[in-house]
Amino acid sequence: MVSEPFRLGLVGAGRMGATHLRALAGSAETPVVAVAEPVAALREAAAGAYGLAAYESVDQLLDAGSVDGVLIVTPSPTHLEVIEKVASAGMAILCEKPCGLAPDDTRRAARVVADAGVPLQVAYWRRFVPELVALRDRVAAGELGELLSVVCAQWDGSPPAGRFRATSGGIFVDMGVHEFDQARWLTGGDLVGVKAVAAAVVTDPDAAGDPDAAQAIAQATTGATVVVSLGRYFPLGDVASVEVYGTRGYESLRFLEPASGEAAQLAALTRQAAAFARYVRGGACEGARLDDAVAALEAAVAAAM
Hints:
Elements: E1 8-11, H1 15-24, E2 32-36, H2 40-50, E3 53-55, H3 58-64, E4 69-72, H4 79-88, E5 92-96, H5 103-116, E6 120-123, H6 130-140, E7 147-155, H7 162-167, H8 170-187, E8 191-198, E9 213-220, E10 225-231, E11 239-246, E12 250-256, H9 263-280, H10 290-304
Parallel strand pairs: 1-2, 1-4, 2-3, 4-5, 5-6, 7-10
Antiparallel strand pairs: 7-11, 8-9, 9-10, 11-12
Helix pairs in contact: 1-9, 4-5, 5-10, 8-10
């Protein structure tokens, strides 16, 4: 028996909101049916391209009562405020990472949704890349032996706008939380002793000191070392990879490739939305929980200090 579509309301139609719209366009399982966006040009573009009901505010979207869950893709500093509004309406929430700019933001979000009795999943899409899931299963099964080191890298083809970088929390909070979450998820341990170094290069004067490249090192509580490499410029295009070293095996995986563009990300976002719908309908949470988001942010903030 086919389940009824799980109707999503999108809050935020900026760069990442548009990416989610591309991923979910034409989805019969988790269609986006409405968008809330205060910037008229973005709102009208999203509504026109995808045939969505359009609202200026999240309050208007919630009052319309036409969605089963809300996908929050607003700027990171506003995540908590929007979560509070959506939770007060009793609506399930899928929130883009990092779920606030500081661990205390995420802890507050956890209290808000617990009090409201609504599910909240954090959108760390790497957990829905099949090759990464298979690698995690191999690690967990001991196929690579004792885990010695995990190296996670993310380099963008070009940086986002300086005004975004200035308010996003910086390279570790904006980008690095993906790698820190991924490292915890792959190793099965928490990260301790985080240390970092940043390149002394900031090409955009509006980026408020956000470096164009940075590296971090930590230790997982399982004993393995973790290396995170981040950069704003990769001439060939966006790339993300992981290397895993064990006592009995090694694996190198480049799961985001310039040649295939955003295809892997879009497919993972589609799987993520479907998993969220199953979670809301009583299934297990297959994605990142709030405690995962807190831990990733703690590592990111430690690296940024």
